[in-house]
Amino acid sequence: xxxxxxxxxxxxxxxxxxxxxxxxxxxxxxxxxxxxxxxxxxxxxxxxxxxxxxxxxxxxxxxxxxxxxxxxxxxxxxxxxxxxxxxxxxxxxxxxxxxxxxxxxxxxxxxxxxxxxxxxxxxxxxxxxxxxxxxxxxxxxxxxxxxxxxxxxxxxxxxxxxxxxxxxxxxxxxxxxxxxxxxxxxxxxxxxxxxxxxxxxxxxxxxxxxxxxxxxxxxxxxxxxxxxxxxxxxxxxxxxxxxxxxxxxxxxxxxxxxxxxxxxxxxxxxxxxxxxxxxxxxxxxxxxxxxxxxxxxxxxxxxxxxxxxxxxxxxxxxxxxxxxxxxxxxxxxxxxxxxxxxxxxxxxxxxxxxxxxxxxxxxxxxxxxxxxxxxxxxxxxxxxxxx
Length: 387
Ligand SMILES: Cc1ncc(COP(=O)(O)O)c(C=O)c1O
What we know:
With 387 residues, the chain is an alpha+beta fold. 34% of the residues lie in helices and 21% in strands. The longest helix is centred in the C-terminal third of the chain and has 16 residues, at 361-376.
């Protein structure tokens, strides 16, 4: 087919074929296309009909898009898939600036993070206009990059400034900041030697509904059958989260909130995006040590804040140690800890009800302490954003 005929097809089928080849095609798109007089369905639109009738025939009519047409379609796509989260701003070292247009929040296909998983990431919560534990997360981010042999494109202070500026541009006062360091774009080889320069990306997300809802005090967990990552990989926060995703899916399929990994010796390790802690019958807070798992910034903060519960006599002690499954299941309290969920009580692990099946007093006290810390903690954990 000549270029000229492709272009004629492109104008005839404006905004149809690319979307038609996707299962994400919905009625809203149909109305958009009909409205523009560019699409005439031959069958009533029902996704399975659509799949059979169009997916095979229409691929031969894929339009060749100009960059402005591609951007237009990206905008339509973003409008169509608005979900529970809103993306308020993105920084990319590729374009060396910040955009607030979700359609432009894209990264190059040949980025080593996209096609080889050669990237690391981290987060920080935005709470009342402050970044919570930004420096602690940034330290882990750079440690993960070093473990992954990614040399950042900027020094720590510059990265920190970029992250704060991105939050400022987003005007977001409550939400989360996520950022990635990648070996960068260059080619599609396995070796990063062809990557032009490492890249930094950051995005500000406004969460409309947190998961789990902060008022749902008590979740079920199951022992994960998905193999845990070996310590070399589990201790770095790389983008290789396939085991974590599969563990989460497995838990959801079992009607649970998360899977709990055991390490190679059978001790309790962590969840797919959270740490785990227990309160023993002797009223001690115990947490698996971080040698084989991700050292959680929230978990570390909890260990510090829990000190005051010891002083007040509400806890007998705090210990990082190996935790057996038996010990964990017999504990008075079990909790999940992470920046996404803060502290979430576990009321059932597999078939075992934990404690009295309700949120325990230590879990509740720790939750209140961390919420208070986010609101009025010291300047070492609260970084103000100037809007
Ligand atoms: C595997 C894993 N473990 C633990 C955590 C908890 O870490 P943090 O409290 O820093 O969010 C996370 C979350 O990032 C994680 O992905």
